[in-house]
């Protein structure tokens, strides 16, 4: 069976030679793949809502592979199937019994994975055990928000819009403006200028989506957008810290211009569960 890298090479060979030069530019790659993912995501959210859980879990399964390659580089193929199994278990539990049942299962999984990790002599059993929380909670959160409320597509569109706007603006502004670094020991490229630009973009795009999707609470929408933008950047920094700990630059190379799937969804790993928790505490889908 062909590997992901082999499939990428086959696709690259099919690209016309005249296009290859521009497409090797990292920024152009980032724009092209980002636009493609946005279009596909919009179609799934609004046009094929029944596929949304499958779409989300597919990303998480790929992220599982990248996580194990990062944390257990020497023998990740020997143990990644344990995480595949529990992710599939959670996906089935949520689909059949609901998010509450999936969360009940999730509570005991870190302990069980820690026992498994110790039994098979992993180098980092704690990272192995905690990975299920890091990888599964965001998926459970976005699927729950999509299915729990009648305006699920609007909630997910608003959330993705704020997070992706924050990500994109922080990257572009940080790259072109530069300046003081936020945390040099964690990420050598993340700057305060990029962070402020990302926050501004998240709030602006969140406000625009709020008007389009008719949240009816403009200032509340701006406040929620600012919160999600900050949470997204904190989540991004947390992933950068993990990569720095394991001395890698990117979690993978599946998505040109972005790196791996984990590099693309890292801003959602903290912000999605927090957003779902806020809605749960409020008893309604904020900022609506």
Can you characterise this structure?
The structure is a single chain. By secondary structure, this protein is mainly α. The chain has a domain at 151-288. Helices cover 77% and strands 0% of the residues. It has 12 helices and no strands. The protein has helices spanning 4-14, 17-23, 26-47, 52-71, 76-97, 99-119, 125-148, 152-177, 192-212, 218-245, 261-265, 268-282. Helix 4 (52-71) runs antiparallel to helix 7 (125-148), helix 5 runs parallel beside helix 7 (125-148) and helix 7 (125-148) packs across helix 8. The protein is globular. The termini are far apart.
Top keywords for this entry?
288 residues, mainly alpha
Morphology call: globular
- How much of the sequence is in beta strands? under 5%
Q: How many β-strand runs? A: 0
Described by strand count, sense and barrel closure, the largest sheet is: none
Helix content range: over 70%
Order of helices and strands: HHHHHHHHHHHH
Instruction: Specify Rg, calculated over alpha carbons.
Output: 19 Å
Structural class call reads mainly alpha
The parts where pLDDT drops under 50 for at least 5 residues are: none
């Amino acid at each position: 069976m062909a590997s992901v890298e082999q499939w990428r090479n086959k696709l690259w060979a099919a690209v016309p030679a005249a296009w290859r030069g521009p497409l090797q530019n990292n920024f152009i790659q980032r724009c092209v793949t980002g636009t493609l993912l946005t279009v596909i995501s919009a179609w799934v959210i609004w046009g094929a809502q029944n596929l949304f859980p499958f779409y989300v879990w597919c990303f998480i399964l790929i992220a599982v592979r990248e996580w194990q390659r990062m944390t257990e580089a020497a023998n990740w193929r020997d143990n990644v199937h344990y995480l595949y199994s529990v992710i599939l278990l959670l996906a089935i539990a949520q689909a059949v019994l609901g998010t509450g049942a999936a969360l009940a299962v999730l509570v005991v999984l870190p302990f069980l994975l820690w026992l498994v990790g110790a039994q098979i002599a992993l180098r980092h059993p704690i990272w192995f055990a905690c990975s299920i929380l890091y990888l599964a909670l965001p998926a459970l959160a976005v699927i729950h928000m999509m299915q729990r409320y009648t305006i699920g597509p609007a909630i997910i569109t608003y959330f993705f819009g704020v997070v992706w706007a924050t990500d994109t603006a922080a990257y572009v502004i940080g790259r072109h403006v530069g300046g003081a670094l936020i945390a040099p020991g964690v990420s050598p490229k993340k700057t305060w200028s990029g962070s402020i630009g990302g926050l501004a973009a998240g709030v602006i795009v969140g406000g625009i989506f709020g008007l389009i999707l008719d949240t009816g609470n403009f200032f509340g929408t701006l406040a929620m957008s600012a919160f999600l933008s900050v949470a997204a950047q904190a989540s991004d920094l947390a992933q950068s810290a993990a990569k720095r700990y394991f001395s890698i630059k990117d979690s993978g190379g599946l998505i040109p211009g972005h790196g791996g799937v984990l590099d693309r969804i890292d801003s959602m790993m903290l912000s999605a569960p927090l957003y779902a928790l806020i809605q749960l505490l409020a008893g309604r889908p904020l900022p609506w």
